[in-house]
Amino acid sequence: MRNILIIWRKELKVYFVSPIAYHLLAFTAVVFGFFFTVATAIFVSRGMQAMQMRSAMPMDVNEWIIRPLLMNISVIGLFVTPMIAMRLFSEEKFSGTIELLLTSPVRDLEIIVGKWLGALTLYAALLGASALNLGLLFLYGQPDWKPILVGYLGLLLQGGCLLAIGAFISTTTRNQIVAALITFDLCLLLWVFDWVSSYEAAGWARVMSYVSVLTHFEPFSKGVLDSKDVIYYLSMIFLGLFLTSRSLESLRWRA
Amino acid sequence: MIKVEGLSKRYGRTLAVDNISFEVQKGQIVGFLGPNGAGKTTTMRVLTCFLPPTAGSAQVAGFDVVKEPLEVKKRVGYLPENPPLYPELDVAGYLAFVGKLKGIRKAELGARIDEACERCAITDVRKTLIGKLSKGYRQRVGLAQAIIHNPDVLVLDEPTSGLDPKQIIETRTLIKKLAGEHTIILSTHILPAVEQVCEQVIVINKGKLVTIDSLENLMQRMRGAETVALQIEGRDGALDAAQAQRRLEQVPGVSRVVLKESADRHAAFEIQSLPGRTIRTELARAVLEAGWHLDELRPAARNLEEVFLELTRTDKETGSGGDK
To answer: Taken in order A148, A149, A152, A157, is the CA torsion positive or negative?
Structure first.
């Protein structure tokens, strides 16, 4: 546990003394700020129209603003996770510091979990930046906070799952760009696999749809906390970290 | 302190290390000598638990590298060929990270960092980002990293590679200072480094152990008979080098005279004695009797370089060299 914390702190330090963390925070703040502005503006103009037409259509902030925005953050997550995860092991392999880690009295698993938690913490900070926008809604309205909380839990789980996959990819190459590209490819595929379910209901389509992160995030965005989705994410995280540990061990055997 | 038995390491089809056995006693400085690709780094990586051996076993401080890697790692300080540094961190922050990783308790950490900085003469750059340091400083930070937890065994892979002559001397002095408390095993293909620092030499070539001996014995063994370098000058006018050679060959105890160089008035010879004879006094007398000036007369001790070349060459001739 102590070793995990040591690695975790070092990871965060490296993120925050390099431009990576600041760039990602700025990127998220700007992009999400834009989404937020657009979503609220649309909501307001719809509201004006409804008033002019004297229709009694219910306007729900959670349904109209927050849910689409949560889906948006989930998409932003696809772009930022490769950028966060790419350096996890590639950088250490490239600079040779992996030799320091692997010859120190720590277990492989402690290294992996520490690094993954470091990446997840940065990702959580990005989510925090987006949550500031949503906080504004509470100043001017009364959105229901529970679905938001569930939505963010889903985002965190999705991030954890993609970061675990990214960590694994990062162990396979010394080149950070390659790691980022492959991780992005996988993230994107895991995202769009769900589309087959819209025209096909055969067994293979159901499997593809099940594998997709989108399938499992949607309920979270609606504020629905379903154990089967949580289990999906947790098992994906476990799989990613397990592959990472196997890959790290194979470094020793293949060198 | 270190005990290696029948160690082999295979990468795919190449046999990088082939059945090596050796032992290192506590407090010794051992030079690991061999040309590039001889298997030095591989052996060191096995000793530091970075790589598992394909066959054979290795024990460090009484613990097996395969069965109890965590115990071994606690007792080993390792400086890989490229110092494992994080350019984003400052020196003190980096050493704090490594120290904690090596299991130093928080209360002790500050003192340990101070000590390591002082011993490696990097106190003046404690607050500098590692990325901004010169090569020499980086190497020393790497060394500080290796000694921070006061390990029983230090494994240094090419600690002087890429440094300028002044830095090489500084690093060498530093390593000598570290000896005694630590058992040090250092690899190099630069021979003077071994000559000046190590007590014991392990020569490997193409993955095989060529020889293991104390430096003194090794030099002695190769020396056998005495070899003397002699330079003379004719007293008036020209000197007949061939005639001088014949004259020198008649000196008692001389087995062979080789003319190395001759200008019009000077001649330089390399003279070998019969085994077990000293010939310098006789030679000096002969020179004076012949009426020449004696410019230079010194024992031409063969340096490690020649010893090394000879050792690795014999290995090739007997046909036992490495991979097929």
So the answer is: negative
Q: Does A109 touch chain B (CB under 8 A)?
A: no
Q: Which of chain A's residues have a Cβ under 8 Å away from the Cβ of B84?
A: 95-100
pTM (2 decimals)? 0.83
Q: If you search the block for the tokens 């408390």, which residue do you land on?
A: B181
| Collapsed DSSP state (helix, strand, coil) of residue B229 | strand
Residue B129 bridge partners (DSSP): B90
Out of A3, A99, A107, closest to residue B84 by CB: A99
> Starting at the edge strand that comes first in sequence, how are the strands of the sheet with B200-205 ordered?
B76-79, B153-157, B183-188, B29-33, B200-205, B208-214
At how many degrees (to 10) do helices A213-221 and A227-254 cross?
140
Give the residues across from B63 on adjacent strands.
B60
- With both helix axes pointing from N to C terminus, report the angle between B91-101 and A2-17 in degrees, rounded to the nearest 10: 160
Q: β-strands B29-33, B183-188: how paired? A: parallel
Residue-range domains of chain B with CATH: 2-221 (3.40.50.300), 224-299 (3.30.70.3190)
Name residue B17's beta-bridge partners.
B9
Tokens of residue A105, six digits: 């009295």
Give the nearest chain B residue to A111 (CA atoms): B101
- Reported ipTM: 0.87
Contact A219, A213 (CB under 8 A): no
Task: State pLDDT tens for residues A114-173.
Answer: 999 999 999 999 999 999 888 888 888 888 889 999 999 999 999 999 999 999 999 999
CB contact under 8 A, B70 and A107: yes
CB B127 within 8 A of CB B35: no
Distance CA B38, CA B40 (A): 6
* Whole-number Å distance between alpha carbons of B85 and A243: 26
